[in-house]
Amino acid sequence: MQQEGLNESLIQECEQIVLTEFSSFRKQLKLCYEDQLSLFGSCRHHFEEGKDASIIQGALTRNDFSSSRHGNFSEYSTTESDEFEKQDGGDLTCEDESTFFDAADYFIEPNGRSSAMLSSTSCGEGLLDIQMEDSSHLLPQIKRRSKLPEPTEKERGISLWSIIKDSVGKDLTRVCLPVYFNEPLSSLQKGFEDLEYSHLLDQAYQYGKMGNSLMRILKVAAFAVSGYASSVARPCKPFNPLLGETYEADFPERGVRFFAEKVSHHPMLIACHCEGKGWKFWGDSNLKSKFWGQSIQVDPIGVLTVEFDDGEIFQWSKVTTTIHNLILGKLYCSHHGTMHIKGNRQYSCKLKFKEPSLLDRNPHLVQGFVEDDDGNKPSFLIGKWDENMYYSNLDTSKVKSVDQLKGAVLLWEKNKPSPNPTRYNLSSFAITLNELSPDLQDKLPPTDSRLRPDQRHLENGEYEKANAEKLRLERRQRMSSKLQDNGWKPRWFQKDGEDGTYRFKGGYWEAREHGQWDDCLDIFGEFSET
User: Fold this and answer.
1) Short-list 476, 469, 478, CA closest to 521
2) Where is the composition biased (Basic and acidic residues) (predicted)?
């Protein structure tokens, strides 16, 4: 096309069309592969008990795992294993090799990953390897940072007792905690961190398109749990956003676009909206806290919603979080309670986050089940909110770990820790959230969290400047109540008349494209209290 002298923009447009079509094709193949792994997982006990692999091959034959019928993605079961024990598998000849994927070469290990089992079968070597690479390389590739800047100052240790002592007799609403207790992220950015595993919703959308509603809700449940994985060993709190503060995250390499705004100061409310490949996610959140001396209990208030393009909706609320050892001991958090994921069609899900105890040898346990409209439980879930989630057709309520189950199949697994650790214990994904390139800075509104000076100074290791800016902005924050009382309204969200949830009004990305931020307040600038 270049040799023919065609316009560069036309060439890029054609290339994007080809990449989009090929990406869609690869996603279909990947989902087929995942369904095959699900079936192999349910058949794992045949291998563990030393049964003939032809039993499984016969099952695959009857379940349309045929290269000539690759379109029948949703016609085979991914959860039932009983029928395979009842069926006799005939001997396969070498002529069958070109037709069927051979299950004897793959089985699901206890960690849920596929692994080579046999180097050869009765049909010989050279069987088809169904392992497929991630198709994310077909999406736009954007280089993002992998570590935080090196601090410019040496950090000084801060004593919580000295802060309490210095605060005696003072108005506690005017006591400013030093930035030592913060991490260089705002609560708005933490909201996007909950979508680190948004690919689970991409998979849920594809499963629903193929008619597999059960796998859709299982993936949604795994996504709801995955948002807690980043909270492990995070000793510092995020910055409390100012009224009207916003945060955008445009991640085309993930296929998602996220936006959040602080919509109320009293009560403190944050609203968010995210668009993915075939789905939308939104919600608002408020926190109700109780101080118990050595710990703080935080109860989230608000509903999170996922709506797929075919109209299926799932809603849930977060469970209780408790932060332990505030005064003495190592600081850590736990999540406990029951999460109800309610769907508007066939399935709903109930997940129980186990409350920790002193003698508990299996912390962070999550167990649950999927239930249909008739009260049947077609699938069960088990895992840990900081590690992984599995599903099985066996009841998981009586077991303590996934290792005690046969045929459990992996739904989600936590990413590996960052190769460049920080004292904030940020994941590789979290490290990218506050990155500010010159090109991005020119496009952001003056309300974006990346432009908040105290947070930026903290990330750069400029602790004295960060403390001074934090004190200035917290004085400004106290003016927010007056601003709200005088009729201030959120710029990008409005209350839904039906359920009271703040919904995205739209218009942000269009304003960003044209750089129209004239009606956005300079919330981080200087101010007068008069």
Assistant:
1) 476
2) 449-463
